[in-house]
UniProtKB/TrEMBL annotation:
InterPro entries: DUF2232. This is Putative membrane protein. Pfam families: DUF2232. It comes from Carex littledalei. The chain crosses the membrane at residues 109-130, 142-163, 175-198, 210-231, 237-264. Keywords: Membrane, Transmembrane, Transmembrane helix. Coiled coil: none annotated.
Length: 283
């Protein structure tokens, strides 16, 4: 039993001096003395105590986490998710295109699958924008540079990469098919000429000159067979060569437009395409 002196001493201790230990966030209940009039302290739950004594950065972090989880602040999360998804898709398209080109070139079946090599760049451009198509083209070239060397990478860029990037960019900008076919044909023709020049440099022979000389000889033989003594000039041969090259590239690009329109429609990207009326009715 406590002595009366101890009880009187405990009675006169101010309640402000009774503090909670700093090491324990949960308040410790203090039983009210029958001799005092101070209210009884009710213990709080651990969750409430941890929130009450959390620091300001922790409160701000928990609030941001709660908003993102609850759907109040999802803009930043959606933007980060879209950027990540775009990067992953570009990397996937680049790897598939690069490996397909490398294997088809190694197995000598490039002529059978060459029409599908620009397709990943077109899909990236139409789906994510011009920068995504450019990244896919550059990533594919870097992958081919690592796997097969600079010659294969340069040939891919000249024959397929530029065509896919130009076509995808024009489709993303919703340009009409007439202008898209014209510009893509010019890009294909320039790439074909660049491919011939690169091949000429590698084999130390002017392939373009050989082509024009053979065309000149063939036309001269045909004219002589018809009884015409006129010999065409080299300027006319160059013009004829350019016309035939543009016609060949234009026909190929036109077929690529039809093929890629069908592929993108089957992939559920019909709303992103601006098709002519006859193609829209056919699909």
């Amino acid at each position: 039993m406590p002595t009366p002196a101890a009880i009187l001493h405990f009675r006169h201790v101010p309640s402000s001096l009774v503090q909670r230990p700093s090491l324990f966030p949960i308040s410790i209940p203090i039983l009210a003395s029958p001799f005092t009039n101070s209210p009884t302290l009710i213990p709080r739950s651990p969750l409430a105590a941890s929130r009450a004594y959390a620091s300001q950065p922790e409160r701000r972090l928990s609030s941001t986490h709660w908003k993102s989880e609850g759907g109040v602040d999802r803009d930043g999360g959606d933007e980060a998710f879209q950027k990540t998804l775009r990067l992953v898709e570009c990397a996937m398209f680049a790897s598939v295109s690069g490996l397909a080109y490398f294997l088809s070139n190694s197995l000598s079946i490039e002529n059978y699958f060459g029409c599908f090599f620009p397709l990943p760049i077109v899909i990236s451009s139409v789906r994510w924008g011009l920068s995504a198509g450019r990244k896919t083209m550059v990533a594919t070239a870097i992958l081919l540079l690592t796997l097969a060397g600079p010659v294969k990478a340069l040939n891919y860029l000249l024959m397929h990469g530029i065509v896919g990037f130009v076509m995808g960019s024009l489709w993303r900008l919703e340009i009409s098919w007439a202008l898209s076919i014209l510009l893509t044909t010019i890009a294909r023709a320039v790439g074909a000429c660049g491919y011939v020049l690169v091949s000429s440099f590698l084999i130390r022979e002017n392939i373009l000159s050989l082509i024009t000389i053979n065309i000149h000889a063939s036309i001269t033989y045909i004219l002589q067979a018809l009884g015409v003594s006129t010999v065409p000039t080299m300027q006319a041969i160059y013009i004829l060569f350019g016309v035939l090259l543009l016609f060949n590239c234009g026909f190929l690009v036109f077929l690529l437009h039809i093929l890629y329109a069908i592929c993108l429609t089957k992939l559920g990207m019909r709303g992103s395409l601006r098709l002519p009326s006859w193609m829209d009715k056919a699909i």
